[in-house]
Structures are given as C-alpha cells and as structure tokens.
Design the sequence.
C-alpha cells in the first residue's frame, strides 16, 4: 500500500528453507515472518524471549538459524533481513543447536507439567517434545525455589518454572511503563522479583500471564480453575470500553472462564486492560436478569414468559400510539447493544413514525494505551445508527411528551444522567430490555432478559469506526433473547416490518 | 619460529620502584606528560591513529584487538560527545597487572589516556575500576585531582586547548562488568549485563554515544610508543604482537609476581627463569597462560612463545597474561571445580546456555571429583561445554567452556581415575 507522498517501503527478497519471500526492509527475520503471517504457521522458528510487541532481548538463544555466508548460527530475532539472504531453519545443524538449548533450558525446570496451569499452552512443553530429549541426562538436583510468590494482587509467580525470558520484565517497562519487575541475582540464581514494597500493580498487570511462555506467571483469577484443554476459545470483543479489544472467550461447562487477548495489531496489539479482562465475570454474574417479568395489578413485577412479555410490550406501544399518536413512543438506545440491535431499534421507531430517542453513554477515565473514556463497546456504532445525546429526550419526558419508553440497558440511571429511575416513574410504560438487574426495574412495566454480546454475537463499532464481528460464544444458562430479536417481534406484533440489520454483518471485518 | 625477542626492555614498570614516581612532580621529573603535550601540539588525530596502527599495539584486556584500528572506528564528525572508557575491572582470577599499573604509575595511565582521547575527540574518559580496588581507586583519584589542578586535565590540557576530564567510577563487584558492554550498562547505573552487538560501542556505547573501551595496560603503552617511535616499539615482542606485557605469575612457583617481558617470551622461560621454577623442587604439571578463562596447557606444551599467534596453535590464548602454575600435587578435577564455580557465580544469567551450562558443569565436576561420577558424565560434561560455545550474547560462555574442554582434552585420564577409583586420587591437593 502506498501512502500519498511516501515512497513504497523497500522490499527485499529472502529465501527460507527454499521458499522465496518478499519482505520489508528494516525488519528482523522474526518480524518479517510475523508480518508475512507464516511464523509458526509454515516457518517454525521456536522462540521464547522474542515477543512481537516487545523489544528484542536475544537471550533465550532458541531462535538460532543458519544464514548462508555467516559462519556462526544467528538468532532470528535479532538478525536484520538483507537482500538475497538465504536462511535455513531446520537443517541438522540448526536442529542440533535447538535441542542443545532445549536441554539446557530444562536442566533446572521442575517438569511439573501434570500440575501446571500452563500445560496445554506451554511453549516449553511444546518445544521440549519437538526438539528435546525427553529423557533427562541430569542427575544433579534441580534448583529449589519458591513455588508461590505473590507479585501483586493479580499475579502469582512460580520461581522454579521461570525460564528467565524477561518478557514480563520488558512488558512492565515498555508497555504500561511501570517497571515493577526486575531480574535480580546472577547466573542460575537469577529470578524475577518486585522491589520491596512495590508490588506489581498496574492496569495491565495480567498481561504478563499471557506472555509468560511457561507456567511461571498465572492470574490469581484463573489459576487452577480449568485445564486449558477443556476450554473452548471463541473470538469475542471486550465490552469494557469503546476500544473493543479483541479477546478469546474461554468457555468450559457453558460458562465463560476467562478472557485472554486476541491479537489485533489495529486495535489492541496483544494486550487487554485488567478491568476489561475481568468483565467476563459479568456474563455469568448472579445479577443477570434471568427471567422476563411484567408489572402486575398489585404493582409488583411478576415472572412471565418471554412471549408474554413481548405481547405485553407490543400492546403497551399500540395503546399509546392509538391514544396519542406515534410521537409519544420513545426509546433509549445503548452503547452495549450490537449494531444489529440498534438497527432494529432504529427500524422500529421509523416504522412507528417516532423521532424521539437518546443515547446515554457512561464515561470514565481513559489512558494513553488502550482504555477509552466511553464505557461501552458500541458507543460509536450507536451514534452511527443515528442515536445521540439523551438531553432532548429527557426534557421531553420531563415535559410529559413521552408515554411509552423502550429502554436498552440501564445507563440512563447512572449518576451522569438521571441518577435514579425516579423521573421515569410518571411514564405510562417502561419496556426494559437488559442483561443485568438494576433499579431501573422499579419503574419497568415489562422486563425482558437480553443476551450479552458473548451470547448473541454480532457487530460492534469501536471508537475509531472499526466494525468488528464476533460469533456467539455460548448459550446463556437461562432463556434470554437478543434485543434485535425482541424488537423485531414487537414490530411484527404491531404488523410493522423493520430492517433486520444484516447489512452491518456484511461490512464487518 | 620467526619471532624476535630482543634484549629485555621494561618500559612500563621502569620507574615503579622509584620514590615519588606516583606523584605528579615525580612523574614530571622523569619527563612525564611531555610526550602527550608534544603529540597534542604537533600531530593531528589522524596522525596519531596512523602511528598507533603502524605500531600494531594489541589490546591487553584479553581479546587482543588492535588498538589503533579500534580507535579508527570512532566517528569524528563532532556531532555530540563521544567517550573513552578505561577498563580497570580486572576481575579475572590470576590477573593483577592493572592493579600495579594503577598503584605505581597512575600518571603514566593518565598520559596514556590523553593521547587516544585527543585522537578520538573524546571529552571525557570514564575510568571504571572494580569496587574491591579501594586503594588503587584512592591513588588514581588523587592523581586525577592533582593533574586537574595542574592543568594536565581540564578545559585546557597541558596548555594545548584540548579539553578532557577523567571520571573515576567504582564498580559494584561483578566479573561480568569487565566485559565491555556489561561495563557500559553498569556505568550507566544498570545491572551489569552484556548488550547484544551490533550496535558496537563505537556506534552506540556509554549513554548512547560513541565509545571506545580499552584496558588499563593498553593505555599505558601509548606514551612510550610516541616517545620512542614505532620502530622501537616493533623491535620488542613478535611481528604480530609487538611490545612488552605484564605477566602475572601465580601458583606453585618460587617467585610469584609480576614480570614485564616482551610478548613472545616462552612460557617455560617465564616460569623457570623469571619466576624461579616450581616450588620445593616439585615437578610441573600444567600452566594456564592468561587467567582462568584461558585453556590450560600441560607440562609438555610449555615451550610456547607467549603471543596469541603461537598460543592459538596450542588451543589457548594470551588472555590477560595471568600465568597460573600448577605442580604435580594438583588435582586437575579440583582445578575444574574451582574454575567452574567461579563462572557459575559470575554468569550474568541472560543466555540460556551460559546460565544453565555453568551451573550444570559445576555440579558435574563436583560429583566427579567426589567419586560419584561415571564415564558417561565425562561425555555429558564435554557435550555441555560444547553447547555453550559460540552461541551467546558475550564471550563469557566461551570463557567458561574452554577451560573445562582443555582440562578434559589434556587430563582425561585423571578424570577417568576419579571415576574408576570412585574418589579423588590427590585428596591432599587443595581444599575446594
Ligand atoms: C567475561 C569477560 C570479562 C572481561 N573482563 C575484562 C576486564 O576485567 N578487564 C579488561 O580490560 N577487559 C575485560 N574483558 C575484555 C573487554 O570486553 C574488552 O575487550 C577490553 O576491555 C578491551 O580492551 P583492550 O582492547 O584494550 O584489550 C572481558 C571480557 C569478557 C568477555
Ligand atoms: S516469569 Fe515468565 S515471562 Fe517472566 S521471565 Fe519468567 S518465564 Fe519469562
Ligand atoms: S481497553 Fe477497553 S476494550 Fe480493551 S480490555 Fe480494556 S476495557 Fe476492554
Ligand atoms: S554469555 Fe553469559 S555472561 Fe555473557 S551475556 Fe550471556 S549469560 Fe551473560
Ligand atoms: S527468541 Fe531469539 S534469542 Fe530468544
């Protein structure tokens, strides 16, 4: 791709194991292979210390390759590509060197794979099978170190398993810039430590567990919960803010057990913020709305089926329109809904002929790395669907111009907006489609359990306008429906036809 | 053998026994700083480097790289500061020459720094001295202060208009801080561990600036080359390795000590003529030619001239010229234990092979020495040493592997003796 005013980056031709590649000048061999998308997917150069998003360390010595014309083996992570370079990654000499490093790497390793949380996604285990002698020649005692060191509130460290690749150290120094971790001591006494009184404590601390190539760093949250081979990993999006970081949704036994970063160099590189990562807990949270409910004659919410709730919602809308015209039906959109849900909401309002709507987006702190101030994954998508500030709508509600309000989510009662459900109490009807319980139920006449993004899939648009599609990762443990589906059914109960939002799916990347 | 060993000359240590030589006035009374003044006034930086290259002075810090060539790598575009570093970390067991050069000839060193400082355009020299060298540090600091007060150092060096300062930095005690990039990290206040190369220090060294690192002794030769000329210098030593060097002889000899002798002096001559031979009339068993990281030579191989081009043929190297002599009572497996323990302790721990290999070799050697080794352990030992060679960030791993390989090469039967007897045949040798 050539940007205007900029010359096309110089391309070099290199040959790896007999295959020719065109690569960009100025990259190292590993970077070039990573950019080509063939690293460990065709060209296997094992590596421990190198990480695509961290500085080069060059210490594990696992990535040695033979470069024709250079007598010594070279480390691929620190060897710049050159025009005409011919590289061998799996000849006898290279394999022997790898096996040599592997054997030394395991000299002091506890080999406690059966009880290690990393087993199944451990690079040491993988490479040891491939290059190592699985029988060990060491008769010497292995170094005995501490098995459980709390580096901070989120991360537990097993000193014995650490292979001293320094990814975690470089991460803290280079990504959050907090530098809590350091390698202390020398030689085979080296170990990762924090400074006394300064624990690992930053908003990205849990990433060190992801990048640790072995089971030395584990999150207190996930440790020992599930063996990874029982986890199904489905692509997802974090719903914590409008960055829309890409995650793997780890599902076991119909429950989401963790989010881990899914690499997307345009959105979140290979990182997640800690608070966003923990939002997976919202999915199985006890305060999910698990059942539809209708306001009974006594004024209490009474459990109902979803069909009953949809019927009641449709009836409330119809009555209001018949009595006072379509203008009295209004809606509050949500930045937590998908583009498909929002298109359906838009479509329903249009079909009804109502122009009254608003979009409350709760904001908070952002940072220079990933975290965005808007605390909703699809704030941008909601705006793109035509929803805007809720001010006018709220004025109209206060002025009595609204009779029926369809509400997605409960951000409206956040202190940045109404602060309480009180102002909505005077409405004839509030129809609430939501995932989690809130005080908004106090004024709701119809409550319909909605699905979380991970339960319905769909597209969301991040703050930069990037439309991202994800599939459903799991079925909810109770009956819940996507908002788009509910809205479409309300429309059809009203004999209206609306756009189903499938257009967005086609645009998504 | 094609090398010339002319009449013994000892210019570095010539005045070391004189009273007052360590003081500025005593040094000046013997013509000190006159050479530097003349060079700075009369010659251009290119002349100086040209002269140095013709002299063929080889670095005395261990690697033996040509000093003039190294200085020619420094960019002289005047764009920002560049530095010299004087490597006074001297931590290699068996080496103690730099200490004496600093204690007895501090001004000779300063004069030796001024000339390449001028040639490379460096405004500052960092003199990095090992932390344990408290006394040499004190003597040097006084010499630097006196030289600064007298205008030998400072904004107008010897009245020539050249500005230069020397900053003394005391190390925090690690062998690896002697490796030039480990030194630079330590100098910058970080943990001393070698950097990946490239970039080499001449491109990016101390504080990101072009830097040249040389050993104390390397600097000390420089004024003599300019005082007496290239031809004089090249008439001493060998064709490839001109000049003298300080051989530090230790171990089982009658007269351990420091001997300034021409490069190319035979190892057996150093041991038997200069150091008085093996103690108590015992038989010589082996000698290490240049500090513990250099491969040991057995008694039959000691007629070798002490210069890299000859030692190389015997699979060894001059290193720092620290000659360690061992007599017939020495258990060579214990020697291996002691040496490998040092390397195990001092590995910075970055590279897998070095970190794990040094520890593994030490454990294997200890076990063999204690009589619980097997024939297979000897092969494993050799194999581990082989895996450490040539594949790490710095040369430390090689330095740790070579001595073990040489011990196995030359004394395998003694290792086998431990295995078969299931004990050390020379238990009285020395304590480990
Ligand atoms: C492990 C290791 C330790 C070293 N220790 C020293 C030292 O203590 N003093 C020294 O001058 N050079 C030492 N060196 C060599 C330096 O890296 C460097 O080559 C030298 O200072 C250059 O000076 P020269 O060219 O004047 O010899 C060491 C090298 C290695 C690999
Ligand atoms: S804890 Fe993990 S990431 Fe950190 S140095 Fe050890 S192996 Fe590497
Ligand atoms: S930055 Fe935002 S989207 Fe990314 S992990 Fe954090 S909260 Fe989630
Ligand atoms: S070879 Fe040894 S001392 Fe040198 S950088 Fe690697 S681990 Fe450190
Ligand atoms: S990945 Fe290249 S040295 Fe570790």
Sequence:
């Amino acid at each position: 791709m050539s940007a205007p005013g900029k010359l096309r980056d110089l391309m070099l031709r290199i040959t790896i194991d007999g295959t020719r590649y065109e690569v960009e000048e100025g990259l190292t061999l590993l970077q070039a292979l990573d950019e080509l998308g063939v690293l460990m997917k065709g060209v296997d150069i094992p590596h421990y210390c190198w990480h695509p998003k961290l500085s080069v360390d060059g210490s594990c010595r696992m990535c040695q390759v033979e470069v024709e014309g250079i007598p010594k083996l070279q480390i691929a992570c620190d060897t710049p590509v050159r025009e005409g370079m011919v590289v061998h990654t799996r000849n006898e000499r290279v394999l022997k060197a790898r096996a040599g490093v592997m054997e030394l790497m395991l000299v002091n390793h506890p080999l406690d794979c059966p009880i290690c949380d990393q087993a199944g996604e451990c690079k040491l285990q993988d490479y040891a099978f491939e290059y190592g002698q699985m029988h060990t020649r060491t008769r010497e005692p292995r170094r005995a170190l501490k098995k459980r060191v709390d580096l901070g509130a989120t991360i537990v460290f097993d000193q014995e398993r650490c292979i001293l690749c320094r990814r975690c150290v470089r991460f803290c120094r280079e990504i959050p810039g907090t530098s809590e971790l350091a390698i202390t001591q020398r030689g085979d006494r080296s170990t990762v430590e924090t400074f006394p009184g300064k624990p690992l404590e930053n908003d990205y601390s849990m990433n060190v567990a992801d990048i640790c190539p072995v089971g030395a760093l584990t999150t207190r949250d996930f440790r020992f919960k599930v063996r990874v081979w029982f986890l199904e990993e489905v692509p997802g999006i974090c719903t914590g803010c409008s960055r829309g970081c890409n995650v793997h949704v780890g599902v076991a036994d119909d429950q989401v057990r963790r989010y881990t970063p899914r690499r997307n160099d345009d959105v979140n590189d290979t990182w997640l913020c800690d608070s966003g990562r923990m939002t997976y807990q919202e999915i199985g949270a006890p305060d999910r709305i698990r059942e539809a409910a209708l306001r009974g004659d006594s004024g209490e919410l009474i459990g109902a089926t979803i069909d009953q709730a949809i019927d009641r919602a449709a009836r409330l809308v119809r009555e209001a329109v018949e009595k006072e015209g379509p203008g009295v039906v209004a809606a509050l959109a949500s930045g937590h809904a998908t583009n498909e849900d929002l298109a359906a909401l838009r479509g329903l309002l249009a079909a009804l002929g109502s122009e009254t709507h608003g979009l409350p987006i709760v904001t908070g702190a952002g940072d220079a790395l990933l975290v965005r101030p808007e605390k909703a994954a699809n704030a941008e998508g909601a705006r793109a669907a035509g929803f805007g500030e809720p001010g006018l709508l709220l004025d109209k509600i206060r002025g009595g111009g609204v009779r029926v309000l369809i509400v997605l989510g409960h951000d409206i009662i956040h202190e940045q907006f109404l602060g309480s459900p009180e102002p909505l109490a005077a409405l004839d009807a509030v129809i609430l489609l939501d995932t989690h319980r809130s005080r908004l139920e106090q004024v709701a006449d119809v409550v319909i359990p909605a699905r979380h993004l991970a339960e319905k899939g769909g597209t969301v648009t991040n703050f930069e306008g990037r439309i991202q599609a994800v599939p459903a990762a799991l079925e909810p443990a109770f009956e819940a429906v996507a908002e788009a589906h509910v809205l479409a059914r309300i429309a059809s109960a009203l004999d209206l036809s609306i756009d189903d939002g499938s257009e967005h799916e086609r645009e998504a990347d | 053998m094609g090398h010339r060993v002319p009449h013994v000359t000892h210019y570095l240590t010539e005045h070391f026994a004189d009273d007052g030589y360590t003081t500025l006035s005593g040094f000046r009374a013997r013509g000190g700083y006159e050479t530097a003044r003349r060079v700075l006034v009369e010659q251009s930086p290119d002349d100086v480097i040209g002269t140095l290259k013709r002299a063929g002075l080889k670095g005395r810090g261990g690697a033996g790289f040509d000093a003039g060539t190294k200085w020619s790598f420094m960019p002289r575009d005047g764009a920002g500061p560049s530095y010299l570093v004087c490597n006074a970390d001297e931590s290699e067991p068996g080496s103690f020459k730099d200490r004496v050069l600093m204690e007895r000839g501090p001004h000779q060193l300063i004069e030796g720094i001024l000339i390449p400082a001028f040639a490379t355009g460096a405004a500052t020299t960092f003199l990095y001295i090992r932390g344990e060298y408290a006394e040499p540090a004190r003597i040097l600091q006084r010499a630097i202060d006196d030289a600064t007060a007298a205008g030998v150092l400072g904004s107008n060096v010897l009245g020539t208009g050249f500005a230069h300062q020397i900053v003394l930095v005391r190390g925090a005690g690690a062998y690896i801080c002697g490796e030039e990039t480990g030194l630079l990290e330590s100098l910058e206040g970080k943990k001393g561990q070698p950097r990946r190369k490239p970039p080499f220090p001449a491109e990016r060294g101390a504080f990101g600036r072009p830097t040249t690192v040389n050993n104390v002794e390397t600097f000390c030769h420089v004024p003599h080359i300019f005082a007496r000329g290239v031809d004089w210098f090249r008439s001493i030593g060998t064709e490839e390795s001109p000049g003298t060097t300080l051989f530090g002889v230790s171990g089982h000899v009658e007269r351990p000590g420091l001997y300034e002798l021409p490069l190319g002096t035979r190892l057996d001559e150093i041991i038997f003529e200069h150091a008085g031979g093996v103690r108590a009339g015992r038989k010589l068993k082996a000698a290490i030619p240049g500090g513990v990281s250099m491969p040991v030579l057995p008694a039959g191989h000691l007629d070798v001239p002490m210069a890299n081009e000859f030692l190389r043929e015997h699979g060894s190297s001059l290193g720092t010229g620290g000659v360690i002599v061992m007599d017939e009572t020495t258990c060579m497996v214990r020697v291996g234990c002691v040496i490998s323990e040092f390397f195990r302790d001092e590995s910075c721990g970055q590279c897998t092979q070095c970190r794990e290999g040094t520890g593994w070799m030490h454990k294997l050697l200890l076990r063999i020495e204690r009589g619980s080794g097997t024939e297979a352990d000897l092969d494993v030992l050799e194999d581990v040493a082989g895996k450490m060679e040539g594949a790490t960030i710095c040369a430390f791993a090689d330095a740790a592997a070579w001595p073990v390989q040489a011990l196995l090469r030359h004394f395998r039967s003694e290792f086998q003796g431990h295995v078969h007897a299931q004990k050390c045949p020379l238990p009285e040798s020395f304590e480990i």
Summary: DSSP finds 13 helices and 22 strands in chain A.
